[in-house]
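yo

u said u wanted the structure for the complex thing, so here. seqs first:
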Amino acid sequence: MSGHSSYQPKTGIERWLDARLPIVRLMHDSAVSYPVPRNLNLLWTFGGILVFMLVAQIVTGVILAMHYTPNATMAFNSVEHIMRDVNFGWLLRYLHSNGASMFFVAVYIHIFRGLYYGSYKAPREVLWILGVIIFLLMMATAFMGYVLPWGQMSFWGATVITNLFSALPVIGETIVTFLWGGYSVDNPTLNRFFSLHFLLPFMIAGVVVLHIWALHHVGQNNPTGVEVKDVKKDTVPFTPYATIKDLFGMVCFMLVFAWFVFYQPNFMGHADNYIPANPASTPAHIVPEWYFLPFYAILRAIPDKLGGVIAMGGAIVILAFLPWIDTSKVKSMTYRPIARQFFWMFVLVCIGLGYLGAMPADEPYVTLSRILTVLYFGFFLALALIGIFERPAQLPTSIADSVLGGSGARLGHATASEPQAKG
Amino acid sequence: MAHATDTTGTEPTRRDFLMLTTGAFGAVGVGALVVPLVSQLAPDAQVVAAGAPIDLDLAPIAEGQAIKLFWRGKLIFVRNRTKKEIDEALAVDIATLRDPQTDQQRTKAGHEKYLVVYGSCTHLGCVPLGSSPGEPKGEFDGWFCPCHGSHYDSSGRIRKGPAPLNLPVPPYAFTADTKIKIG
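structre next:
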C-alpha cells in the first residue's frame, strides 16, 4: 500500500542514523506520509483512541502497582490507602478503573465499526483476527484487574469466572485448582492474578503492533468499502489529515472520560466492591462489569453448565470466523439493504443482552435471554445466507468519486451492477 | 557436505543421526523445564498443610439449625435437620433427580439428622442461602442460590435451576456420637 518511502533525511545526523537504524523513516512512513482513504469518518478515530487508552492504562497501572499490596489480608486496605493517603491516588485509581470502562466503550465502537463497514473481509482477515485476540486479552486483563481490590465483587467475580473452567469434562477440576493455587479463591490466586494483570497489557501492546502492521500492509478500509484504486486521487497523507482528525476524536473522547472520572467515578462500578471480600457470604446479585454483561447473559441463558460456557466462549470466538461466514463480496453495509437491517438488529440484541445480564436470574429475564441468545447467533447465520441472494446497491466507482461527486460517466450505468471490482 | 549429495533417501547419514539426537535432547530438556513452570501453580506445601483434617463438635447445633465453617478455604454447611426435612428428603423419587442420590448415600447411618455438605453452588461457586435464620431456603426446604437461581433440597440435592450436581458431601467420619472429623 505505502509503496516507496518518501522520507528525505535532511541533516547529516539524520542520514547517519537512517543508514544504521531507519527508525525515523519507519515513523515517517507509517504516521506522516502513509496514505489514508480521503473519505474516512470519525468512527475511524477509535483506533487512535484505543492506542491512547492502552498507554493511559499502562501509565496509571504501573503507578498504582507502586502503592498496591497484592495480599489477601492487605489488598483491600492498600486500595483505600491509595484513595486516601497517596497524593492524587484517588485520581490515578479513578482514571485507571474508569479507563478500563472507557477502553471497552472505544473497543466496542471500533468492533461495530468494523462489522458495519465489512473491515473483516479480504484482504483484512488477519488484521481482524488479531483484533479478536486483542479483545480476548483485554477481557482477561480487565477481569483480573477487577479482582485486585479484593472486595466482595472481586472475590465472587473471581469465584464465578474461574469456576467456568470446572465445566470442562475430566480435567476441569484440576485446571481450577491450578488457577487458584489452592482449594478456593485465596491469597495465591490474588498473587498470580496481579502478576498476570501486570503482564497482559504488554502482550496487548505486542499484538497491537502486529495489528497496526497488518493494517498498514493492506491499507485501511473506508466507509464505501471500495479499495483504493489510485493513491493520488483516493488518499490523503496521514499527517496532517488523519493526525488532526484522530486528535479531535481523542479530545472529544477524553471529555466523556473526564466527566466520568470527576463527576461519576463509581457509576460503572458496584457498591458491593467497597465491602471487603468475605468467602462466607455471596452478594445478593453477582454481576460482572458492564462490558461483560452480554456474554454473561448468554452464559446464564443456557440451562446446562458446559453448554453455557461453550455458548459464551463461542459468542466471542465466532467473531474470528466472520471473514468466512459472511458470503457477500460487498464490504460496506451502506450498500447492503438487507444485511444493514440485520446489523442494527444485532446492535439492539447486544444491548438487550447487556441489560438482561444485569438482571437477576428470574423470569421473564431467563426466557428473554434465551431468545436474544438465539438472535445473537442468528445474525451470523443471516450473514452467511443473505450474501447469497441480496442484491447490493450500486457501489461508487472509486473513493474519490464517492466524495467528490464523481465523473459524469457514472450517471450512465446506474443499473449496471458492479458488486466489487477488487476482493 | 560432499557425501550428503548422493544419499537420496537411502542410508541415514551421521548428520541425520546428530540432528535427531540433538532434537530429542532438546525436546526432553524443554519438557523437563515445563514441569516446574506448571507445577508451581498447584497448591503449595503451606496451603496443603493448612488443609489437614479438623474436628467438630455437633452437640451445640440445635435441631433445625445450620452452621458454617471453613475447611481448606471452602465453606461447609452442617445442618441438624428436623424430622420434616428428613422425611421430605426420603420421600423423593430418585428417578426424578438430576443427580440421582438417595438421602442415605449422603448421610452417615445412625446419624441421619446431620447433613454435611460443601456450601458452594455446583453451578459457579456462589454460597447458597438457607443456613441462617430468615434466609430463603428455596422451594425444597434446603438452600437457594441467589446468583443464578438453583434450588437444593433438604438433602442438598439439586432440584431446580442451572446447577448440574448435588452439593458434594466432604469426606468426614463420626469419631463420637456428636463429634465428626472432616478431612
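Residues 163 and 199 of chain A are 23 Å apart (CA to CA). Confidence is low (pLDDT under 50) at residues 408-423 of chain A.
cya
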